[in-house]
Amino acid sequence: MRRLPPLHALQVFEVAARAGSYAQAGLELGLTHGAVSRQIAALETWLGQRLFVRVGRRMVATPAARAFAEEVSLSFDRLTTAAEACGRPQAPRVLRISAPATFAMRWLIPRLDSFHAARPGTEVRVTTTTTLQDALRGGFDLAIRRGPEPWPQHRAVPFLTEADTLVASPALLRDRPLTTLDDLEGHVLLGTETRPGDWSDWLAAAGAALPGGVRRRVFDHFFVTLQALEDGAGLGIGPFPVLDRMVAAGRLAAPFPEIRVDRAAYFALTPFDADKSPALTALIDWLVAEGAEPGLTIRR
Fold first, then answer.
1. Beta-ladder partners of 223
2. What one-character DSSP code corresponds to residue 13?
């Protein structure tokens, strides 16, 4: 008879090590902070050594615990695969994606129907972040971030390249057409705190200086700027292909589509110790395939 550690404690430990936080592990498992702490303590007693140490206000896994957690995670992966092969194929599979808000709203969510059609037994839940470099902590199966960044604890798969160009509402451009760069004078330039170099980079690509007589208006997040652009409040710099569908629907227009600034690619990030299920593999493959699709032709 195998002498196994307490399995529930192992599950709690694996999530806490992956999430990097007792509180986050509790949220993921539906447990209180105290319950997580008790399960970790039970496993530490069984093993005869500490698995977490306090650093500041957080409990951090020791190097030995991190190595152990990777092995536990692999064992859970094998158990999950075996259960899916032997168990209930009709049971729904839930995948949690963490993505920047504008990217999720304008690129990811409008395309998810095609993934659901291919895998009707998989449910995708999307949570959003307000910055592209938001901290990578637990609570997701896959995170989408723009790189390149050092992600030593994650497998990174690039799937979508991005470029910026000037955008505005068609109604604004009808009232005040932009045919040359000189026509920027007198317009309101909309910017975003989380995208501070957009205008300077685009003007540099255009070989132009900031024209006189312009006013600046800056918002905290890009989805707010995007709403102001749709409302005709001014000119902005927008990412493509994220905004392709807004241009195709006539909600935005790009008066100088040939002037573009290449940006870093988007990456699909999965923790090395995550459950590498067939559903998660299929989601990554789907992202890569969607990212390879040609973007819409940007019209003026």
1. none
2. H
